[in-house]
Amino acid sequence: MSLEILSNIKDAKPSQSVEKLFDTVRDVASGQSDVDFIVLMADSAVEINELREDKAIESTETERKIIIENFPLEKNNYLVVPKVIEE
């Protein structure tokens, strides 16, 4: 499948790294994967107790200005971002 079909993004450009990822997924799904790769993936797994606490932190005034400059529209006290996924 092409990247455009999978991502539903018009005029998406093929990416060598994304295609390599899809090839790896196809190999794993078909049972033709490299066992060392699967062991490596298992070794890099993170357990829930290893994750940091999810807590809100205050942004600096400079960070707020940068965010507002990048997302100038606001609706109901939320920033408006461009729609990127179409159904």
Describe the protein's architecture and organization.
The chain has a two-stranded antiparallel sheet with strand order 1-2. 45% of the residues lie in helices and 5% in strands. The radius of gyration is 20 Å and the shape is flat. It has helices at 3-7, 16-30, 35-43, 61-70; strands at 74-75, 78-79. The model has no long low-confidence stretch (mean pLDDT 75). The chain has one domain (3-45, 59-79).
Topology:
Layout: H1 3-7, H2 16-30, H3 35-43, H4 61-70, E1 74-75, E2 78-79
Antiparallel strand pairs: 1-2
Q: Report the span from N to C terminus.
A: 18 Å
Radius of gyration: 20 Å
Number of helices: 4
| Topology pattern, helix = H, strand = E | HHHHEE
Q: What count of structural domains? A: 1
Going by helix content, strand content and strand pairing, the class is mainly alpha
Residues in β-strands, percent: under 5%
